[in-house]
Amino acid sequence: ADSEEYHTLDEAAAVEGVSSGVDEEITKDNADKEDSKEIEEDHPPPLPQSLPQSAPPNYDRPDMVTVSAPGKALIAGGYLVLESPNPGVVLAAEGCRFHATVTFRPPYNVGSGAIGNSADTSQESIPLDVYSPQFDRVFSYYLSYSLASSEQDDNTALRLHPRKRPHEPNKFVERSLLLALGYLRQSLGAGAFHARLRQRNGCDGSERAALAIKLRADNDFYSQIARLNENGWDLTPQNLQRLEPFLPCPKDESTGELVVNKTGMGSSAALVTSIVGALLRFFGVIYLPNTAEGVGDESEEANKTNGGRREEKEGLRIAHNLSQICHCHAQGKVGSGFDVSSAVYGSHVYTRFSKGVISEFLENVESTAKVKEDGLGLSDTLLEQLVVLVNGFEWDCTVRPVNLPPGVELLMADVCGGSESPSMARKVLDWKKNKRKLGFMDDYYWKDLKRCNNKIVSMLADKLTDQTFLDGLRRDGAMIISNRTAEQWKKPMPSSWYKFEGSSWDVALKLLDLRMTLLECRQNLKGMGKSAGVPIEPDEQTAVADATMKLPGVIAAGVPGAGGYDALFVIYVKGPETSGGSSDQVRDRIGNLWRELSNRNDETVMCPLSVRAAGFGDGLCATKLDW
What we know:
eleven-stranded mixed sheet, four-stranded antiparallel sheet, disordered N terminus
């Protein structure tokens, strides 16, 4: 979790929406006939009130489970992805993951301010502790639940309430816990749920144990510029990798408050998804891929039966649906969900689900939660609806595998400089709704972005997966193409291949087509931002992106998601390896340029992150990380 998630949660949803481009709703313009044809109705069939009773899966239930979920970068589809069927191209981040570990431990001593368990005497109860050492926090609760179901709408089948006062609420943690544990209680059955909570494996044998969750985030989710400067180290990915993992956030020397600067990699979605996945796996409801075993991996080394693969895919589907519900509930709005989808499935092309799939359920949960002043609670009726939504309802979002071609890589920048208004996304959406007249440019930017985004999808999912192209990139990418600028790609160049098709020039021309399309997206986003009066691509970011795109080997650079000042992405052709294989010549050239630009401008500092692009299937997975 991060500072907004732990302190100003209502603002966090707005800020996350600005940085990721998915957490603000787009109001549909019914007057726009072209748009209205493409936007699906958000009125799916009414939910059934209950599911047929069936035995839950009986997977193993380990004493300790750690599950991780990656961050992301949206390189195409910002703003438009909020409207179906507009696609978004999202790349999962290798080396930037949120980790959640679940086990049983002795209850945390909350010290002064401890309060008694206010649960109904007819309910069972267990302490629940959430440890976040990076943010110097332990959140302590009672989890209370009934063993008997009730048809009364005002009953509380499961409740989460604090163990001490004052209590610092955290919507992303608490609402994820409430819905995930409520789903488990209902899907397993109250008896099996209770039995699992009474196993207490791994505890010290004490009579009373707590369900314990430990949260850890990889360093690239948060800016490490200040720490590198304190160490006297250059701002390079290699030096970032030298830092200890899971570094605690610094504190202001005068106030003692946490100082947290996010890098725009989707920490909230990764946090929620890791918590949900870890709880589902700990209770034995789902099976997940293990580290480095993507769901799309069909190799013999994976040593899985087809049945095992089906179980993994079903587990990811359940984790996805439940995580989407939790994340939207925490935000207080139904976003597009591409960040959660990427946290589950890895890199892919995404189209959103209809808001009506979960909006009615969330309204019911919100209206119920408001009257639970001593905690958050769910009724049996809501839990039944939740299980239907997660297990038995057909979601209309789509996930299409996509990967960067081997030999093409992602580089992200942590940018410290400038500031955007939390209402930036809302202003753009208001501009879209009001259809500001621009003469012959009327609504041009939005419509042309659709064309450009669809072309990028087509290229990454089809054109750039052709084996002839991939062979040519493998042969000539590092030694020939990476050493030439895009201007030089337009001209004939030497090649190790005797035919034009698959030659270095043929490969370079295809990459040049991708470059020009991504550049068109940049121009449209910047124009749309100017029309709406918001800095989607601020002039400072434009200058850096333009300079970066002049370097040899660089395909494109731009602002991810909804834009702003906090991040920059680069897609480039990998050069010959450097630093023992941890970097390459093109990556080093980009880092050197950014360091030079930062030295010239004291107001804007840029640090290359250590993340790289993950592939499809490199999403939610179980790991061997210990407590």
